[in-house]
Amino acid sequence: MSATAAGGVRPISFTAHRMGRAARRRRRLTRAGTVLLSVLVLVWTIMPIYNMVMVALESGGDVFGEHIWPPQPSPHSFWIVVTQGYWYLENFWHQFGNSIFIATMTTLLVLLIGSLTSFSVARMQLHNGWLITNAALLTYVIPASFLAIPFYLIMNHYGLHDNPWSVIAALVTFATPYAIFIFQEYGRSIPLELDESARIDGASPVQVYFRIYLPLMAPALVAVGTYALLLAWNEYLYQFLLLSNKRSMTVPVALAQFTNSDQAPWNYMMATAIIYALPPVATYYAFRRRMSSGLTMGGVKG
Amino acid sequence: MASASVTLIGRPAARRRPLLRSWQGRLRGSEFTWAVAFVVPYIGVFLAFVVYPVLYGAWMGSSPHLYSELFSDPVYQQTLVNTLLFLAFGVNLKLFLALLLSGFFMQPGWWIKTLLVIFVLPWAIPALPSFISIHWMLNGEWGLLNNTLYILFGIEGPSWLNQRWFALGSAIASHIWKWLPFWTVILLAGRMSLPQEVMDAAKVDGATGLRSFVYVTFPMLANLYLVLTLLATIFLLGDFNSVFFVSGGGPANSTHVLATLGIRNAYDMGHPELGVAAVMSALPLMIPLVIILMRKLRTTEVQL
């Protein structure tokens, strides 16, 4: 009896043991794969960023050297940029201000126009509002760079040459469609009965918009606002075409001009690039949780 | 990222839901005026900055002899090849990698979460600084990439940007570097919103690893993947920065794509009509894409 019992038990424990070993081996392989893939992803992601930091920390002559770490790292270049101590950087803070102005105005206008439109179309259900939704959808799928040349010429017709408002107009044009979608989508979660009861109580459309719609839409407003801000900060082509004066141009345009000079001081350029990249990175990580992943979409149209 | 909310399954569009018509049909006089007043700003923007430029561009590029001039330009012929390669590799490689990486980032563990935070950096950093950095990194003599190859492995790397195919490859790789996090995060959100019951049922039935991906996960993601492919194609067609700053269209104008060639014809050659013509020549590809995409975006709830 006991022999059969033992005989019956042993094979089971034996297979269990073998399976355990196979499973352990598989787990170890998966783990090794994960580590390998992690390292690859990390190196791939970090390399250009590391390069930016490394070059920014070099002093002039070191830029042209065969090394992968600056021989004498120093924050000198950052100091030069911050104090505008190089002739290419004379207007750095002014240009930084231009970038901030354009980004702020774009964000405010996108939020205003987008929320008004979606309120009228989705909440008040304006007759034939779907036409507007379709117009927005169409704008969303036209690549911005394809419209750049006629847009530039038209800005001259409008008398907006070398004027920040021309850039703001372009950015608002390409960011608002996205705002309209998100607001319409998000608005579906807010019961229409709220508007209804406010209306019965005698509220005008303007009051419903300010007192009910906007407060309830706050999360979507934050998300779209972040999106518009990042889009404006990312954009280069329109700013390059529409702004030509040293005092009216923005940081990316000035930065790109660097590359055209023969004696490009790469360490100053990279220091400028890093300072320019800090606000959007900070904004992104601050609002990361609030932006539903899709909200990142518009960056593609830069 | 965990809070990402992408709805993607081919649900019937929301307009088929019973509408709560609170204002509709009963918009009284002043309310109707307000409703119209609220959409006026957007209609104004649309007419002034979309319709007018589109018509103006169409008018600029309407003369047939522009196109004979364009097609006989050897730079344009090269550009067409580049654009097609850029599309074929850029879109598919990027989305396929994004699909794989989204699975990778589904794994539990603090290390994976930390890695994801780092991984999205290229998306958060503005395009221009990164592309300038990549341009310098790929410098044949002093660039970080060749220095690293030499110091670590003793390999003399090629001068990446001085040869057409290497330069085009670099531009494509830079584009993928910049946009891979974005598409990965979207697909990650897509995977997260898949119904867990189905995954569990598949697991009980013995589908694991590759089988579960091929027969369960991917069929459920297929619609999203298709829409993303279409969107990525259109966005990539319009991508100006990655080519302009990484290869600059060089060497000898051999790595232009349509977006950069348009600007080059218009400004470097001072012939805006030819620039518009270059962009317009993408219309045979663009129009069907836009039509399919607009249908898909309207009828599927892909919330991007």
Descriptive report:
The complex is a heterodimer of chains A (302) and B (304). With 302 residues, chain A is mainly alpha-helical. Chain A has two domains: 2-56; 80-301, MetI-like (MetI-like fold). Chain A has helices at residues 2-56, 76-82, 92-123, 129-140, 148-157, 164-187, 192-200, 205-216, 218-234, 237-242, 251-260, 266-287. In chain A, helix 2 (76-82) crosses helix 12, helix 3 (92-123) runs antiparallel to helix 4 (129-140) and helix 11 (251-260) runs antiparallel to helix 12. Chain B has one domain (14-18, 65-299): MetI-like (MetI-like fold, Orthogonal Bundle), CATH 1.10.3720.10. Chain B has 14 helices and no strands. Chains A and B meet through helix 1, helix 3, helix 4, helix 5 and helix 6 of A and helix 1, helix 4, helix 5, helix 6 and helix 7 of B.
Could you give a quick summary of the protein structure above?
The complex is a heterodimer of chains A (302) and B (304). With 302 residues, chain A is mostly helical.
Q: What structural keywords apply?
A:
heterodimer; A: 302 residues; mainly alpha; MetI-like fold; 2 domains; 12 helices; 0% strand; flat; disordered N terminus; disordered C terminus; B: 304 residues; 14 helices; 71% helix; globular
